[in-house]
Design brief:
- This protein is an alpha+beta fold.
- 33% of the residues lie in helices and 26% in strands.
- It has a five-stranded mixed sheet with strand order 2-7-8-9-10. The chain has a three-stranded mixed sheet with strand order 1-6-3.
Amino acid sequence: MRKPIKPARENISPSDLTFGLSTCKRCLWIKYWYKVIMPGQFPLVGTFANMQEEHFHRADMPTIDSSLRPGTVTKWGEWVKSKPLHINGSDTRWRILGKYDLVSTNDDGTIGLIDCKVSDSARDNGAFYSPQLEAYAYALENPAAGKSASVASIGLLVWNPVSAIGEDKNSYGFSVTQKYLPVERDVPNFLATIEDFINVLEGELPEPGSECQTCTYLVARNGLDSL
């Protein structure tokens, strides 16, 4: 596959630092150089995510979790873009661009960043999502334009559906358990991850991922087409 002179996109999505980098580097490379993405089918993800985020508009941070600094959720669903990422002593062509879920304005002048999840996945932990959350924090602390912020806390707010509730057709719903998972700031790990990410993008087309369902399907499909 011929590598274009310029990538189709130069803005790195924070979620790609978790799902993209850990799933298949070949698909990741194609996404950024050709803007070709395997379509996904997640019809309720956006609906549940919006409901969860809206529930915490203007919420007091300590009511979400007692470990959080006094403050109020004042922003939600806003796009943030960083300055060019600085790797190996020089600026790159790449920037962080993403839309965070919730941001608080804390009483001490700092801000808190919360990523909302409606999930029952075992991988909902700080270590897995740390690079994604750090990417949002990086963009807030190193914005392409405007005033920088000081991010005091990052974490996951997880709703785990456990049962159906309601007594008639107008009041059915889902009961969830809620947990807040604080994520310790780890800038060195983020910088190492983003360096690996950019090295993948700036290199040649990687080999198919051994566990990538998309690559497995395409290899099998190409084999059938050649029969």
